[in-house]
Design a protein that fits this description.
CATH superfamily: 5'-nuclease
Distance between the termini: 22 Å
Largest sheet: 5 strands, parallel
Helix content: 55-70%
Strand order of the largest sheet: 3-2-1-4-5
Structural class: alpha/beta
Length: about 140
C-alpha cells in the first residue's frame, strides 16, 4: 500500500468536510499519511487569517496531532536541485510547493494533491489527485 504526504489543499478540503476526504484518509490508513512542516505552517497561516482564528487554530492542531509531521531539512538538497532545474527551464513553482514536493521525494511518498499543474513539473515526484477521484 502507498504512503502519502498530504498537500495543503487536501488538508484544507478535509478540514472543510469536502470531497469525503476524511473517508479517503481512513481508506488509506492515517498511519500511511504524513504532513510536511510547510503544510503545517500554511494551515496555521490560514487559521490566523480566518474569521475565527482561535477556533481554527484548535481544529488545525487536532488534525496535525493525528498525522506524523516530517521535517523538511533532509529534503533541502532535492529542493535546491529541483529549484535550479525548474528555474533554468522557466517552469518555476512556488518555494513552498517545491519544498513539499522535495519532502515527498526524499521520503519516497506519493503526494496527495489537487495541484497537478504545478507538481507535474517535478520529474521525480509521484502524485495522486485525490479530488479528481472523489468527484
Amino acid at each position: 500500500m502507498n504512503q502519502y504526504i498530504l498537500d495543503t489543499d487536501i488538508c484544507v478540503f478535509t478540514l472543510r468536510g469536502r470531497y469525503e476526504l476524511d473517508k479517503k484518509i481512513i481508506e488509506v490508513g492515517i498511519q500511511n499519511c504524513f504532513l510536511s512542516e510547510i503544510t503545517v505552517a500554511e494551515l496555521k497561516v490560514g487559521a490566523e487569517k480566518s474569521e475565527f482564528p482561535l477556533k481554527n487554530h484548535q481544529i488545525v492542531e487536532l488534525f496535525c496531532n493525528k498525522i506524523t509531521i516530517l521535517p523538511i531539512s533532509r529534503a533541502i538538497d532535492i529542493f535546491a536541485e529541483e529549484k535550479a532545474k525548474l528555474q533554468k527551464s522557466g517552469r518555476n513553482i512556488s518555494d513552498f510547493d517545491l519544498l513539499i514536493g522535495a519532502t515527498a521525494i526524499y521520503y519516497q511518498l506519493v503526494l496527495a494533491t489537487n495541484n497537478v499543474k504545478h507538481f507535474s513539473r517535478m520529474e521525480k515526484l509521484l502524485f495522486d489527485n485525490w479530488i479528481q477521484k472523489q468527484l
